[in-house]
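Hi P.,

Sorry for the delay on this. The queue was packed all week, but I finally got your sequence through. Input first:
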Amino acid sequence: MTTSPGVYAFERIDDALPFIPLAARRLLDVLGRKLSLEGWLSLPLDDRRRIVRAGAAERVDPGAASIVDVATPAPARSPPQSEPDGTLPPRALADALGPSRPLVETTWRSLQPLDRYALLKSVAKPEKLALAYDHIVGMRLTHLAGRGEARMVDVGEKSETHRRAVASARVCTTRGVVEAMASGTTAKGDVLAAARVAGILAAKRTPELVPLCHPVRTTRAAIDFEPDPDRGELRVRATIEAIDRTGVEMEAMVAASVASLTVYDMIKSADRWATIEAVRLDSKSGGKSGDVARPPARGGS
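Then the structure:
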């Protein structure tokens, strides 16, 4: 079944739009309109598609009311409804989802307005809510099948888009070691050159190291270093890009981790108590969640 842009697969509404999709319902709620199915079907298909696109946008265009108001019978007027708050998931939604489908603040903030609306609109319908959550959030331990066995998630229906992820780590050592790394004068040679190559190789081999990761078509892998002698730290940053159906967060984090481990291997004769700290994802882009950056409250860059 082919679905129109802005219509979720779990809605099972085909390209002819014989029913009112959630995107259209969002637009109607924001505009303060109640439209019957008869009124919906009275509109030309192109107009129904325009309504769906407008309802899937970041912000609902009030001008779309001119399309809706020509329906027969005409839509009834109702108080406009506010959009769900984008900072915290509503308590009623969290309670309806239960512990098996967690919805943390960072995930809620990363969702598109239509995604938040769709989840909240489904609160009173448990089966529909479960489908919406699994499709939109995809955090219900999707790597586990019904009896707990591991599985690789099927991403075949996702669109190929440009994906990018940046991850970082810190190697904490002494001022002298950081200065030696920066100048390329450590006992084992050019630490940063070796670590850069190791990180790039690790990014390409992530599916061999993390069992449930998909192989991706990597288009760019870069490892950068920021020596800070005053703090006795070396900041390692990995930037990975790909054109594929799934993200490259794991590739970036594996690259930052292996580059840091290589640094440790090459400096351990000078400081065996050096540590690797704060391996983390800093930002990602591409895919359904769009551009996401680490919130300052979680230790942003």
